[in-house]
Amino acid sequence: DAKTTQPPSMDCAEGRAANLPCNHSTISGNEYVYWYRQIHSQGPQYIIHGLKNNETNEMASLIITEDRKSSTLILPHATLRDTAVYYCIVRSPTQGGSEKLVFGKGMKLTVNP
Amino acid sequence: DAGITQSPRYKITETGRQVTLMCHQTWSHSYMFWYRQDLGHGLRLIYYSAAADITDKGEVSDGYVVSRSKTENFPLTLESATRSQTSVYFCASRGRTLGEQYFGPGTRLTVT
Known about the structure:
- By secondary structure, chain A is mainly beta.
- Chain A has no helices and 9 strands.
- Helix content of chain A is 0%, strand content 44%.
- Chain A has a 5-stranded mixed sheet, with no helix packed on it.
- Chain A starts with 8 loop residues before the first strand and ends with a strand.
- Chain B is globular and about 40 Å long.
- Chain B contains no helices and 11 strands.
- In chain B, a hairpin with a 6-residue loop joins strand 9 (87-94) and strand 10 (101-103).
- Chain B starts with a strand and ends with a strand.
- In chain B, strands 2, 4, 5, 6, 9, 10 and 11 form a 7-stranded mixed sheet that branches.
């Protein structure tokens, strides 16, 4: 799986959009980008995933650059409950054997009142 | 209630004892997983199961045993607990697509 790079932390004001970047410059053509988050003391939570088109669901939007070397997760109106560690994960949908997700260190988003 | 549950949520046990962590999901997902989370190591896969009676090792499976006689249950057993197995354990099941996993609330295990 391609390696991802995220900044260690980011702050955002409540009510503003939070734009969380992820670099995955070695991504392969068939690898998807997944985003998860983990709120303190809870299990990780799936947010969204995409291949090359932008995706949107009730939680967030995912913008993937045309060259697919980076992506941005957008929380349109951040709330205090969005404070969490966010993980950007890249993996192939056809990887044989293990279904392992490699979470890495992630990025701590703090939403401030 | 629909979803994925784990029990117990907290457990303290002694070195050498056998302990079983339970995981139950109501979605009838085929794939289920066990991870552990430790400071400095992030989430690591212990075991996973593609279906009832089909299990496979992850990256840190030594000292753990799993079984899956029913689709909805995936218990994890520590045969002889060691202090290094003190951790938070998360169970997960896979949704429609590979990579889309849904996690339980976790079990915090302390081995003394």
